[in-house]
Every structure is written in C-alpha cells, then in structure tokens.
Design brief:
alpha/beta, Rossmann fold, 6-stranded parallel beta sheet, 24 helices, 23 strands, about 35% helix, globular
C-alpha cells in the first residue's frame, strides 16, 4: 500500500479538496471552501495546511465565528444541500461562538462542517489558554458543548483517527436523512502530528444525492388514503426544495387538482401566482391556506418537520376525520403525530404517488373553493402591502408596507433573506417569490443575527442572483460584522434595516398575552439614556453604501440605486413597532400565567384555555 506522510491537518485539507458533487451536469467541489478565524488552537496546524492548499480549497476570513457559520449554513441551504462550507476556529470562545450556529443547522437539517481547535491530546501543558477544565472528567473540553447540536461529533486525539472520522462525517453531511452539522474537534498537537496516510484516502470521490424509493406497503397505504379523500391538502416543506422536487410537486397538484400550502422552508416550491398554491400555512399563514387546512380530511405533508408554526400548535386541523401522510426522507419526521409514514425521497415519492393515483382527482368543488379563497387572499395581501398614508397611529410605515416597497423593486430571480422577529410572519404571508429558492428564511431556530451573514452565504452560493436582506434593528445590533466580510469578498448585498426602536415583535406578543410593554421597546426600559443609533453611519463605517430614508417612495428609489451598486448597500427606514397585518394568521401556543394580579393577564388566560381545547394530541 502506497502512503504519503502528512500532518493530520494537511491530510484533512487534502481529503476535503478531493470530494466532488455534480449539479446540472457540472462537476463542482463538494466543499466550496473554509471560513477561518485563526487562533492558537488552529493557526499552526490547520492554518499551515490551508495555506498549502489555498488554490484548491479557498480560505475565507470572517469577523465573527457564529456569523461565518451562519453564512456557511445559508450557503448550504441555497445550494439545496448539494454543497457546503467548512468553518474552523481556535479553542475556547472561538469554538463556543459556533455552538448557536450548530443548533441552527441541526434544527434545519442542513450540512455544516465545524472544525474547532481543541486542547492538547498529550495534556503536557495543561491547562492551556482558553481551556475549560471539568473537575470530574479529564476528557471534557469546551467543544463538548457541540455534542447535543451535532449529528456526528468526534474528537481527534491521534492522526490516524482522521480516516474513519472523516468518512463518517462526509456520510452524514451528504445523507438526506441524517443531514446536519458535523463537529470534528481537532486537538492542536494532533493537528501537527504526522502519519503515513494511504494514497487512496485522497482519491477523488463523487457524491450524488441518494433518492430512496418508498416501501411498497407504505406506498399502498398512502394511495388508499389519498383515493378515499374528499378534501386533500398538500403541505410543502423544505424537503421539496432540497430534493429538487418542485416540478414533480407542481405536476402532482395539477394532475390531481390538489391544493397546496407552504411552510417557511418550503415557500417558493410552487409558483406564487398558481391558483392551487394557497401560500403560507399555520401561525403565519394566509386565510386561504388555513381555511382549507381546517376542513381538510387528508393532509399530505412533504419534507416538513411539522413544527408548531406549521400546525398552529396542532390546533389548525379541525376535521375530525383528518388523516395525515408524512412523506419524508427521515423516518423520524415521517411518522409524527400518528401519520401514515411514507419514507422516501420527495421527488421519487411524488412521482410514484402520481403514477399510483392514475386519473384520480380531488372533487371539483374542493379545488374550486381553493381557487376562490386564493383570489380573496391576493386582494387582502395587496391591501396590506400597499402604501397607505395614515395607516398607523405613529404615521410610520408598517412592516407590510416596507415589504410591498421591496417587492415592487424586486426581480423574478431575486432572493429575500430573513430570520427572526416580526418580519418572518409578514414575509411568509405576503412575499411573492419569483422562483424556487427566492425566499430564504431561517425559521427553524429563528436565530436573531442570522440575517446579514445568511445573505452573504446565499450570495456566495449564487452570485448571479440579487440578494435582499430584511432585518430589524434588534437583529442588526446582534450581528452586523459580516457587512465588512461582504465588502472584502466582493459580494454586494442590499440590506434593508427596519428600525422600530426595540424588539417590536416580542412587545406585541407580550401585549397579546396580557402583559404590559416591558423591557422590549427602548422607551419601555429602565435605562436613563435611550440610544439614538445611526445605523446608516455605522454601516458606512463598515464599508457599505448607506443611507436613511423617510418615506416608502424614497425607499424604492434607494432600492433601485442599490441594485446597481458595486458594493453592499444598507438602507434604513423607521417603522411602526405596533402595526402588524391582521389578515391571515392562526393561534400559537404561548403559555399564559395561570394566576396573576393583572386583570389583562387573567383575561388572556381565559382566551388561552379556550384556544387549547382545539389542540389535538398525537404520538
């Protein structure tokens, strides 16, 4: 057996550069590069290795470890899980900064390779700088924080351990059912140790998407349920897009006349204007989708985790005869709430369901009702997003009006990016995606601070698409450093900052559950001096073209200008913190105190108890 003597870090980098994928007939590196913030835990070992292979595996410098991992997650999501970026940090705070991002990737089932530095395997210099010592377990380091938020975790204490560990890591990262974050904690002395690696470890390998077909018995049971349904409804989740099944889904819905609704992750899977696409479902759903969901006697849930925002905390489906089919590549998700599981790839499953149904169609009355409700929703959404002077008591525009302005200046290939706060609810209901992947929302973990870094990752995945990031002032303050990274990488973004001077979304939730405005809006805090933050000046200091506008018309003019700008543009607009779109939506289970001195809380508790009676309990 022929071998080559390399350090563990050199072998890791060389092996990663030998992994390939194929998209649209083009052969591309599976690992498109590595984000790195170097420190004493990775600069000498992995840093030297990355420098030596920089022409084959690009290294990108970021400004925040959590942010660079968010960018990597967004890159993978925009690439439909077909490509990924790796991230390396030093030990200690550099590593733990990435734990939140690991949770984002875990919840959203997205591939992310994390390579944090770790302590000395030899333990000779213990305790080293930034080492977390466990008084009762000498094997513990700060990187053990990654264990619950990694689909695969390993700590490499010997250089030869890389061979099985990387094989397992790549298997998880490319498996549609297991897909999620992988953490390989790299002891810093092990990174620098040499080993005679077999040359076969560095041979090129092509990773193509696995498309498991359904079990014959599960397929037959699902077909029986569909054929007996009078009021079927499809829920399209993110798995539709990851499977590249949007064409198959549209063909299925059209041939069998089944209306469909979309989750946050599944939005853009179907053409927005199609009469069978009822739009968003659940807590942030459209009136059309939620009305049909309440009546449906059969729900075909495709590629979705069925989280509480999708199901209205399991109070949305009110037909006592409703049955659920879980078409999902992951058995864990397919069988939720006593669903009839159909464990398979989304595209393959839809094709086989369609073939098995033959000429079966949903009743014309049911399909007609869907089209009528969709048309009514289009009118309601247009009213919510139209500029209407005096709509709010403050005179400032609502989030919906800002969304309307951004929509009017968007092109069919554009991507809108968001993550947390009130904007995801408004965008889910109101945004009209022009093409698959045109709606990029991180709402599995709803992580504040994802937005700008996520926009960078989306742009890196496809520089040809114009990327608009919509972010609130709260999220902007949490994480904005990757504006500078976007400038460095030449990835021009349009960032719209909606400044409502606080956490407006949570303030509204606070009021809705009977509480008083407290510690959310800046004006309702105990702080003596309220900051007058100049977001435009801040963004300009990071290198962006930045401006503040005072009207929706000025916003649209600035958006036009931003499309032609060679660098990232940041546009700031003040918005009303209380206004929200009343059309659409559904109850969400947020526990209200059982006892309180406040009458408003006691009234809210009565409403809460009444709403809970609609919840269904499942396995």
């Amino acid at each position: 057996m022929k071998t080559i003597r390399l350090t563990m870090a050199q072998a890791l980098v060389r092996a990663l550069a030998a992994q390939w994928t194929e998209i649209g007939g083009e052969r591309l590196p599976l690992v498109a590069g590595m984000f790195a913030i170097f420190g004493h835990g990775n600069v000498a070992g992995l840093g030297e290795a990355l420098h030596g292979l920089r022409d084959r595996l690009p290294t990108f410098r970021a400004h925040n470890e959590q942010a660079m991992a968010h960018a990597a997650i967004a890159f993978a999501k925009a690439s439909r899980r077909r490509r990924l970026l790796a991230c390396t940090s030093s030990i200690g705070p550099g590593a733990t900064n990435m734990v939140t991002a690991a949770a984002v990737a875990h919840v959203n089932r997205l591939p992310l390779l994390l390579l944090p530095g770790d302590v000395f395997a030899s333990r000779r210099p213990d305790p080293v700088l930034q080492q977390v010592e466990d008084f009762g377990d000498g094997t513990v380091s700060a990187n053990d924080c990654f264990r619950p938020v990694s689909r695969y975790f390993d700590r490499l204490t010997r250089p030869e351990q890389l061979i099985p560990a990387l094989s397992r890591a790549l298997g998880v990262l490319t498996d549609p059912a297991e897909c999620g974050p992988v953490t390989l904690a790299l002891c810093q002395d092990t990174q620098a140790e040499a080993f005679d690696y077999p040359l076969g470890f560095f041979e090129d390998r092509l990773w193509l998407p696995r498309r498991p077909a359904p079990d014959a018995g599960e397929l037959g049971a699902a077909l029986d349920l569909l054929k007996s349904a009078k009021k079927p409804l499809v829920i399209a989740g993110g798995g539709v897009l990851y499977s590249e099944a949007e064409v198959a889904l549209l063909a299925f819905c059209e041939r069998h006349r089944v209306p469909a609704a979309e989750t946050q992750a599944g939005k853009s899977a179907l053409p927005d204007a199609h009469p069978l696409n009822l739009g968003a479902i659940g807590v942030t759903g459209t009136d059309a989708a939620n009305a049909m969901a309440r009546e449906a006697d059969l729900v075909l849930a495709i590629g979705t985790r069925l989280q509480d925002f999708t199901t209205g905390s399991w109070s949305l489906f009110q037909n006592p005869a409703m049955r659920l089919i879980g078409l999902n590549v992951a058995a864990f998700d397919a069988g939720k709430h006593r669903a009839q599981p159909l464990v398979c790839d989304a595209r393959v499953g839809l094709e086989q369901l369609g073939a098995g149904l033959g000429d079966w169609r949903a009743a014309a009355g049911w399909t007609g009702k869907a089209a009528e409700r969709k048309a009514a929703w289009v009118t309601a959404a247009a009213e919510a997003t139209a500029p209407l002077p005096g709509r709010t008591a403050s005179g400032l525009p609502s989030d919906a009006e800002v969304i309307g302005a951004v929509q009017r200046q968007s092109g069919p290939g554009d991507v809108v990016v968001c993550a947390a706060g009130g904007l995801p609810g408004e965008l889910h209901k109101l945004w009209q995606a022009g093409a698959p992947g045109g709606y990029h929302m991180e709402y599995g973990f709803s992580c504040m601070g994802y937005e700008i870094a996520g926009g960078l990752g989306v742009k890196m995945a496809d520089p040809s698409r114009h990327v608009t990031v919509m972010v609130g002032d709260g999220s902007y303050l949490m994480m904005n450093s990757e504006i500078a990274t976007s400038i460095m990488l030449g990835m021009n973004l349009t960032i719209v900052v909606l400044d409502n001077r606080g956490y407006g979304c949570i303030n509204r939730l606070q009021l809705a559950t009977g509480g008083a405005s407290f510690n959310n809006l800046l004006r309702n805090t105990a702080h003596v001096t309220l900051p007058a933050i100049d977001f435009a000046a801040h963004a300009a200091a990071l290198g962006a073209k930045a401006s503040k506008v005072t009207s929706l018309a000025a916003l649209e003019a600035a958006l036009k200008k931003a499309r032609k700008a060679p660098v990232t543009s940041v546009i700031v607009i003040d918005t009303d913190p209380l206004a929200t779109t009343e059309a659409g939506g559904h109850w969400w289970d947020v526990a209200v105190p059982d006892v309180s001195e406040r009458a408003t809380v006691r009234e809210a508790r009565k409403r809460y108890d009444a709403a809970r009676k609609a919840q269904k309990l499942g396995g």
